[in-house]
Each structure stands twice: as C-alpha cells, then as structure tokens.
Hints:
Helix content is 58%, strand content 7%. It is mostly helical. The chain folds into 2 domains: 25-242, no CATH class; 256-314, Arc Repressor Mutant, subunit A (Orthogonal Bundle). The strands form 2 sheets. It has a 3-stranded antiparallel beta sheet. The chain has a two-stranded antiparallel sheet with strand order 1-2. The chain starts with a strand and ends with a strand. Residues 1-12 and 204-212 have low confidence and may be disordered.
Amino acid sequence: MDFASIPASGAPWTVPAVPGWAVPRGAVADPAEAAFLAGAALNALDNLVRANPSWAGAWRARLALICAAAAARQAGRAEDESMLRDAWYLRPADGDPGPAGRMLAAWRRLAECSPGVDTTALQSVCTLLGLSWSAELASLPDEIDRQLAAGRPAPLAAAAMVRAVETAQPGARLLGWWLADQVLALRLRWPLSVPLLMADAGGPRRASRGGGFPADGDGLDAAVCVAVAQGAARACRLAAEIAPRAARLDAVVPKLRAKGAGDAVRRLLDDDVVPGTLQTAALSRFAARRLFDRLVALGAVRELSGRSSFKLYGL
Length: 315
C-alpha cells in the first residue's frame, strides 16, 4: 500500500493513500477488474476510517458537502459547494436552508449517524431530497437487510441498492446513491458512513457508450465499483490535505489565550467550517472574530468564503 507521511493532530501519523494503479482512469468494462480496483481502494479507506483521527468529523463533513454539490448538479440545480456552505452555515438558527441546503442536510445526516435506516428515517431523507414517498420505497430497509444477509462484497451490495431504488421508484437515484453509502458502511462494519459515491455517480454515465448510467447487470456493478475506487481515492487525498492543517491547529492551541478557544477548536475539527460569527457561552462574537484572525495568522485555519464579512473558517 502507498502511504503519504502526514503528521496528524496529537502525534505523527501516516494517512493511507490509494495506490495509483488502483485509481480508475476512465470507464472500466470488465467487472472483475472494476471489483479488484474497488477492493484495493477500500483497503486504504478502511484503514483511515478505523484510525478515527481527531479531525474525522471535519473530513466527513467536507465529503458530505462534495456529495451534496454533486447531487444538486444531478438535480439540475445551480448551487456549488460555496453556495451550499452559505445556505447551511449562514441560515438563521433552525432556519430552512432551501432545497439544495436540504440535500446537504441529507448527506450530513449520512456522515453523522450510525449506518442503517428504518422506514421513518428513510421517509425523512426522502423529504430532504425532494422525493415523493411510496409503499415501494418503504420496502427498502428490508432490502438492505437482505443484501447484508447475502454476504455479497460491499461494492456489489452497494450496486444492488442503486438497482433496488431505481426499480422501486424510477428517478429516485439520488436516494439510491445515498443508500449505497449506507450499505458500504454496514457491510464493512464502519461506525459511521463515509459520503463517497454521489460525487462519482456522473463519471460512469459520461463514460458509458450510450451516455446513460448502466441500468442493471454487470454494467451497473462495474460502474459502482469504479465509483467506489474513485471515491475512496478522493477521500484519502482529502484526508492527506486536512491532517497537516489539524496538526498545525493542535500545535498552536497552547498559544491561544481567548476564553472558550477550546470549544472553537473542537468545532473546527468536527465540522467543515465554522462561521466567523460564532458565539458561545464562553466566547463572544468579538472574541471569536479575534480568535479566528489569530488562527489564520498562525497558519492553523483558512478563511474559505473569500468575503470581507460573513466569513467561514475551516481546516
């Protein structure tokens, strides 16, 4: 396995990297080759998930943002990652983030909750994705149980869920990719799901001969395996970017004097971004602004909005 030597928060650590030969460079027609690539890539990602670094929350939240932006594109919406961030983090407390922001809520829920869904949870996710509810969709939790009981390899079980959703309700493929990530996590016994597949759902579609995503059979299995390999490689690359920033943040914590700084640091490690207007019981907005300016000057965090006001800070 290839490794990138990256210091992680708290101690030197190596972030697993997917070997270059396991990253697909285009469409892979052979199901056996696609499954082989997916297995190699998942091995690296599994090591990362089980290491559970202190910044895993920020990593998963950023992956959720990437997947939500891809979902918005597939739904024909114009919102990109920065617009989704604004919709989510700058909304009033408990405010509605709008249709695209609700898509982000769905993938954030995937990243934050233990894998597995019942009918109530599934109905809630359908609402977030703007999908109508049906009796056919209500049967999907049982389908997840059947796939797990069958003991199929994780990528093939994920492909089966994409297929099952398309059969239950044609046009609900966003839900299929959401559930595919759930099945991956359940099959691999991860404590939390990792948002992966939605971001690569369009790749095989563009590469396939007819321009449409394979509907069934070996074509879909291979396409999902390719998406798994690409998603795992992207997730590991993102981790390698976040890890040294988290280590830098950890290193400068002793230099912080603001009361309540510890809570702000914890939020930076747990989420994609933190608004510059953060206010807690121990930290005023004015103190938060000074704290974030200090962290930027120390090279521990970045300001990601590019604005002079309503700033957003993250690793």
